[in-house]
Amino acid sequence: MPWIYLLLAGIFEIGFAIGLKYTEGFTRLWPSIGTVAAAAISLWLLTQALRTIPVGTAYAIWTGIGAVGVATLGLVLFSESASPARLLCIALIVSGAIGLKLTSA
Prior knowledge:
InterPro entries: EmrE-like, Small_drug/metabolite_transptr, Small_multidrug_res. By secondary structure, the protein is an all-alpha fold. 83% of the residues lie in helices and 0% in strands.
């Protein structure tokens, strides 16, 4: 169950980060409320995962899920660059997260 909490925390982290784009500096009410809610849920889920998963591993995976998710959605939603170097870097983040998962006790 802690790994499911961590996965969900990462998904809400993606929602939080993407939501920031739509808040326009927290001047739009509903996107701002959704963004703050996503951040709160993400942090709560992360704290649940930290009951069992080592903090270094959990934090690295949580931020990795967020980074890869936001970078991927940036490509789709905001037409950001999909250069080979950028895609390689995203793949390296995924590889690192998988490595941490496989080596965690």
